[in-house]
């Protein structure tokens, strides 16, 4: 969120990702209410449909972006000394990026 | 500036600091957000295992059926419900729904109670 002293971009990102996640969760609950994929084959074939895997990948992308804005806010509020703040932020950012790559491998790159 | 700082009152009697219901909802929103962020790698790990093979899928199902995991799942359910409800409350306030003090206090109570209600409901379903 660099270059935005007002924090408007972080504010907007937090809301857009929230709205997508709410929609996805409603969609998921509706799906499992009508068709609980009770076997591995059904679960896997459903999740590997491009619609489902891309929607789920976008959900995790929204979740990780949302987590970044939230964790960043918490760190900026409670960790004042730069010598603590910067490593914690760097570690959080690196972890979230790694999780994004991990989810991409599971949902987009698996055969 | 220096004199101004000298005159600043330091009042930190925890028993006399007011903690209105909105403050509880607000700190709950933060705490639940951090809990959910910490749950995310576990969720991704379980997703990966459930898709890897039939044996791993059954392992995930069996794991989710054990008592300690159910307890942790209920904590996660609280975090999810509270974060979701408090988030919806914020989104509504952004479009000026319920942003008066009276309405905001009422909705703060609703968020706190409803998230505990969801945990009780989930607990009833799991046990």
Structure characterization notes:
The complex is a heterodimer of chains A (111) and B (127). The model of chain A has no long low-confidence stretch (mean pLDDT 91). With 111 residues, chain A is an all-alpha fold. In chain A, α1 crosses α3 and α3 runs antiparallel to α4. Chain A has 4 helices and no strands. The longest helix of chain A is centred in the middle third of the chain and has 29 residues. Chain B has 127 residues and is an all-alpha fold. Chain B has one domain: Fumarate reductase/succinate dehydrogenase, transmembrane subunit (3 helical TM bundles of succinate and fumarate reductases). In chain B, α2 packs antiparallel against α3 and α2 packs parallel to α5. Classes of the chains: A mainly alpha (111), B mainly alpha (127). At the A-B interface, α1, α2, α3 and α4 of A face α2, α3 and α4 of B.
Which keywords apply here?
heterodimer, A: 111 residues, mainly alpha, 3 helical TM bundles of succinate and fumarate reductases, 81% helix, B: 127 residues, 80% helix, 0% strand
